[in-house]
Amino acid sequence: MLNKQSSSSIFLRQFVLALLIASPTAFAADKAEETTDRVVDQAAVDMQDEADRDLALLVKRYQGTKREPEMLLRLAELRLEIADGMFRVAYGPGETGLKKAYRAKLAAGILPLSRILSAYGRSEQAPRALYLRGKAEKELGQSKAAVKDLEKFLAANPKRDEAPVAAMAIADLSIDSRNYARAVSVLNGLAANPKHSLYPNALSKRAWALQADGRHESAAAEMARLAAVFKARAGAKTLSAADAALREAVQNDVPGIAYMAHQANAKKFNLLAVNALFRSFDTGEGYQAMAIKFADHLRTADLNADLRAWKAIVLKSDPSRKSLEMLIGILEYDLERAAYLDVVKDSSDVADIIAANPEHPEAEHARKLVVKAADKLTKRITDYKKTTASTEAERNLGQLLVSFDRMTSANDARRFGLRWNLAETHFALEQYAQASNAYRWIAANWVNGVNAPATISPKAARAQAIEARFQSLRASGVIPEDLEVGAKAGKGLSAANLASLREFVAWTVESEKLDGVALEHYDFEATRALYAAGFQDEALGRAKALALGNPRGQFSVGAASLVVDTWIARKRWDAVEAEARAFAAASGWATKDFGHKMLVQAAAAKFKRAEIAFAAKDYPTAGVQAREFRSTYPNSNLSLDAMGIACNSDLNQGALDAAVSCFSDLASEFPKAKAAVQALRTVARIEDDRLHFSAAAAAYAKVLRASRSSMSASESMAVRKRILLLARAEGDAGKMEAVSSGKQFCAPKLEKVCDMNLALAALIRDDSSAGAVSRAYSRMERASAELRSIWATLALDHANYADPRAVDRALKVLASTWKATDPSVQYFLIARLTKSVPALLERDRKAVQSIEVLANEATITRRMRALTAFENRTNLAVAVPVNAVRAVSQNELFLAYSDLISDLRAIPAPKGPTKQATAAMTAEQNRLIAGFVQPFVLKSRKIRDASLAFEMKEKRGLDPDTVDGLWDRPIAGGVNQAALRTEWAKAIRDGNWSRVAFLSNEAAEMKGVPSGWSKAARAITLATAGAAAEAKTVFTDACRDTGGSSSLRDACRVSVRGKGRG
Fold this sequence. Notes:
Blueprint: H1 4-11, H2 13-22, H3 24-29, H4 31-61, H5 68-90, H6 96-119, H7 126-139, H8 143-156, H9 163-176, H10 180-186, H11 188-191, H12 199-212, H13 216-235, H14 241-250, H15 254-264, H16 271-281, H17 285-300, H18 304-317, H19 324-336, H20 340-356, H21 363-383, H22 388-406, H23 413-428, H24 432-445, H25 458-475, H26 495-515, H27 520-532, H28 536-549, H29 556-569, H30 573-585, H31 594-615, H32 619-632, H33 639-653, H34 656-669, H35 674-689, H36 693-706, H37 713-730, H38 733-739, H39 751-765, H40 770-782, H41 785-797, H42 804-817, H43 823-849, H44 857-878, H45 883-905, H46 915-955, H47 978-990, H48 993-1005, H49 1011-1025, H50 1028-1039, H51 1046-1057
């Protein structure tokens, strides 16, 4: 009887075929077992044939009865079952005759089914009979009849168990007749029932139909549904053997369906979707097989972009890296079409797999392909030199070699041979940068065990790399043809050029160390390149080491010169000296006199340091540098100039003692040099400015002696005059007389200065000898106007020994020549007159008082004549324009009249005979005397008023003690004329009026001393000398113009608060 076994045997042929295709080795292994099964099936067929005959007799027996349809259906099922067994036997090897018997049995099975459908169309057996007839017709190739019966069955019996199988059969027949739409639609019901055992088969059939119908995306979607079913059943562990077989069989078709779907709509069904579909079926060998087939489709269609993308996706999705066969195929394909960029990428992917599994059977095949590609690219570099094609080939080859390194061992000689060939190619093409890199790779990656030709070695590679890099750097301008020495760094290099230069430097150092070779040429050129690139300090260090390391070397002088010249350009003279001395100390230079030149250069640099420091007003440094120069380089022709810098540095620092000593030594050491005279002048000026009068005068005298022949007349005159004035400033009468006598200093044009010095010297000496006094009285009559007051003052100092008339003449001379007298000399005269005149007048007044007055005309007349003479002398004294002298003269005259009045009143009265007579006579005398002295009393009062006026003016004059703070603070504006203040104050205290006179004149001409301060100083001098009233006037005038002097302002404020001298 035909049952489910016969049905499933028919519809599982696809499963059997898929199993045979997917697993041919398994089929071969089971061949013997299959033959045994076929023998068993043949025996079963033979037995069932007997049942067929028996059942046919029963059909005849029940013909026309109600049981006929039942018997017919049993007979049909048995015959179809027999046919199924015959099919298994008939389609074995050498069974061609059985195939005909099989088909005959199927036809015999159809006869009872047709009888049921024609005679018993409404019977219970009719639906199944229709179904089985359609199936048998399908097996016999009667497609139209089969479709008709199966469609009729399915339409009438959609709920029957046979309906899904019928639908599957209709789908097969529809596909065969290219009615793909019907094939899809007939399986809609089954495709909607995931629980049905034929659900996967329905999805697979629909996918085929959709694919054939041109609906590729829908076909892919059905495959995705099918994959999901397999995955779900596998996860639930309900995947049957039939499901597994179907899944494996379908995987052969998935790549084609996926390719067509991708072609139909690449955006919707992109490569990622394809990959996801494949991996939903399998992630192991099945995935690899599908990926390779899909890649074949892409490669066949020459879809390079998709092929690249697909390869990347597969590699990313395949962590096990088992896709080597696919990658090698792609590599060969790309190599054949000379797509070298793709070859590079393929090689990298291949290298990834081989690196993880170096012993892969296809690994060596892949390596040989890469070597072949490298050779082609190397040739391409030469064939297309200086073109973009060559550049691309070079870039591709570099990447290809990296991949080759990853797929070979470290000592594989092919690594080094390929790079040596590449390096040689680049060098021949003058592509030095590339050549150097290739050579360096060999040197850097060389290991023991490399079986390379003798011409290829790490030493040779290092040497060639250095030469290639040198040529590259020179061609790119990194190594300059002409090096310009400068103070500042150059413009610098690009990052690439700088890195290249740094490597070149490192390579030379390495090669010298490892290979024991001297590379001075490359060292020097590297140094020049670093210098030009802006790394001057580094370059200088290298140059110095190169020069001192081998002074006899070809490049030593150039290297040393570069160092020194650079420091000169930088104006770093300290470094110039240090480096030049270091080079001078070395011996054996290639140029014989180079050491001496360096020593000269060191000396010049040392001098320059002193010179620059002096110009920058860094006088301490200048002095130190100049003296160090003279000590270090004593024989230099710059020694004089250095000493001049040292001396002037001392001077500008205010180290005047050191400056004087230095300039004096310079004049002694270099007496014939012009600088010697100037040095002496400077010494004189310093001492003059410091108010060291004696030293200054001596220095000026040396100037005269040293430059006697070269000095102009006017300059000589000025120096001589200065010497005379300095002698006056000293206040030493002997020195003043010495320099002011003779022709050494007193030229005719300086006669007045000399006469003034002699007059002041006499005043200072104050000789009281008769001759000296006589000369004083004589010269006050005959000397020039500005000197007569000096001699008159000296004469009055010794009036006790002079003729009274001469004394009066002296007073007259003072009065008449006072204005012609130098104001600075007036201090001296006032100081003397305020002492000599009061003493003289007091003496004369006492002489007048000594004349006795009696009660007779003779004595009174004699007294009056003496008084008149005294009054005449006081009048002469009053003519002298010195308030203190005037006050004294009027006071002495008042006292003289007071003495007269007192003496007259003191004359005793005559005595009478009686007391009354005496009293009367006394009264009368008193009356007469009162009347006689009244005019004298009135006159004395008038004189007293005049005296009091002079005295009051004097008392209200300037008190020097209240304003002596003027000497204690800087004069003005930060100008510290300390010497002037100190010397002036001291001269006043010492009574050295000759020096005071000198300083007064100096202050008027000295820069930085305000005129107000000079006036104030003169006022204090006047007050100290005794002319307080005149001093007050001068000081008040000074206070109107303080000239920025804080000390004067303070003194003026104190003066205003003060009440004068009394």
